[in-house]
Write a structure and sequence with these properties.
Length: about 120
């Protein structure tokens, strides 16, 4: 089932890229090519430090719910182990890896201002 869903998703992405390219190239066919165009900055930053800070904030925003879900999954695995040391160990590892991953994202968020100060 997931293989078919991935294929459908891939085809949808491919069709949107092809459609975008078709719109871009259709503007130049049959007429004069555009003189200039502007691309807006999605991060709304002018320097590397600001962009780095925005990316780390996004990672923190994304990592917090993922870490919470992984903690719940690990706890559920430990509770439902029913005395099986292998399943309990697997739940413990899930909790440990969730904590390590979240600490890594927090550390990246703390290091971003240090890197930003180096470029000033």
């Amino acid at each position: 089932m997931s293989k078919h869903l991935l294929t459908i998703w891939g085809l949808a992405e491919l069709s949107s890229v092809v459609g975008f390219c078709g719109k871009v190239f259709a503007q130049t066919v049959g007429g004069t090519p555009p003189k200039s165009f502007t691309i807006t900055n999605p991060l709304a930053c002018g320097d590397f430090g600001c962009a780095l800070q925005k990316v780390t904030e996004f990672l923190l925003y994304l990592a917090a719910p993922i870490a919470a879900i992984m903690v719940l999954i690990g706890g559920f695995m430990m509770i439902t182990a029913r005395g099986d040391p292998e399943k309990f160990s697997k739940g413990k590892k899930t909790l440990l890896y969730a904590a390590i991953g979240f600490v890594a994202v927090l550390a990246a968020n703390a290091v971003a201002p240090l890197i930003q100060s180096l470029f000033e």
